[in-house]
Amino acid sequence: AFESITQAPPDPILGVSEAFKADTSSDKLNLGVGAYRTEDIKPYVLDVVKKAEKLMLENGENKEYLPIEGLADFNKATVALLLGSDNKAVKDGRVATIQSLSGTGSLRLGAAFLARFYPGRTVFLSNPTWGNHKNIFADAGVEWKEYRYFNPATIGLDFEGMMADIEAAPNGSVIVLHGCAHNPTGIDPTPEQWSKIADLIEKKNHLPFFDVAYQGFASGSLDEDAASVRLFVERGFELLVAQSYSKNLGLYAERIGALNAVLPTADLATKVKSQLKRLARALYSNPPVHGARIVAYVVGNNDIFDEWKQEMAGMAGRIQAVRATLVEELKKRDTKGRDWSFITSQIGMFSFTGLKPAQVENMTKKWHVYMTKDGRISLAGLNKARAGYLADAMIDSFDN
Ligand code: PMP
Predict the structure, then answer these.
(1) Is 130 a catalytic residue?
(2) pTM higher than 0.90 for the full model?
(3) Which of 178, 246, 252 to mutate to test the pocket of ligand 1 (most atoms within 8 A of CB)?
(4) For atom 7 of ligand 1, which residue has the closest CA?
(5) Residue 240: which region, alpha, beta or left (left: phi > 0; alpha: psi -120 to 50)?
(6) How far is 88 from 108, CA to CA, in rounded Å?
(7) Per the database record, which ranges form the Aminotransferase class I/classII large domain (predicted)?
(8) What is the DSSP letter of 73?
(9) Would residue 211 show up in a list of annotated catalytic residues for this protein?
(10) Which protein residue's CA is at the shortest distance from atom 13 of ligand 1?
(11) Domains and CATH numbers, the chain
(12) What is the per-residue pLDDT across 300-336, written as a single tens digit (0 to 9) for each?
């Protein structure tokens, strides 16, 4: 039956980790996947997560199925974290929230929902975007196109290009927006620009689909990082939001996140929720409980919540410090006086270096530095001790 199957290419992001594992050099450095590492470049389990898990053990939590829509306490906590604890849309019952399989699964559920209830529309993704967005929509049978986002000349946002492409999109298109800490560029619109984007999306009757994978990781403030989504909700938009707890709670493997649909009426929210449940039932039936209990515990408990904010600020702070060290090390070695300030102005886990594919190959083949082909490095995988080595590799690669 399957004789004609050919080999699939390695995943552009997770394939980098596979190649890293196979490299035997002691110099090797994995800056591919966006996963937080400590200053010793070790994986990190947050203390608040350990506390939640200890309590779960003590309470003897069972492993019964969750309802299709997930853990009620989690759903309550996650929408409050996203939109604010006394958000009017939530109080009015206009938000349908479904616990889903982290950011990816929530986006995939949203894509399935669009395929069924908003057929024939095109989804517009930023160029560049997180590599998996294209797969997710394509596999759900939803056509995607791109809007301009990055200007290589300024290593900044191509705001005019972005606006022109959103304007040119057919009325009623779906516009995917990164809520904060845009991946891979680390460049977000300013509040004034967000407001203009909202004006245009409203004028064009487009449907915003926010991807919030780094809440708390961009500015260090959970509220500030949700400001883009909250602006759109305050303005009365109908919209979708996918949330992930992979990065901000370090729950990568627990697959915990949510899909939120904000609707004009409570009645419609109830109906939409029922259809999302129907889609989820066929895709994976019901979501895993472990991560949901952790999030519900951390977000729903004042003392622990404050502790989480401190731990998150610690993670964000370490990445910022590493960015600064890298810039210093680059300046020390750079004989051409280039401007490296983009590394400290970009936010979140990543830096979009501008290294071309051949230069990326030099980084990996000669220097054993693993990164994605688009020139993105994850600063979360770097420490101060290795910043000089990375600077050597970058200068050598830029100069060749
Ligand atoms: N969206 C973006 C922009 C991301 O960077 C990520 C994580 N790399 C995700 C969604 C989803 O990740 P996960 O499925 O692990 O939550």
Answers:
(1) yes
(2) yes
(3) 246
(4) 213
(5) beta
(6) 27
(7) 27-393
(8) H
(9) yes
(10) 103
(11) 14-45+316-399 (3.90.1150.10), 65-300 (3.40.640.10)
(12) 888 899 999 999 999 999 999 999 999 999 999 999 9
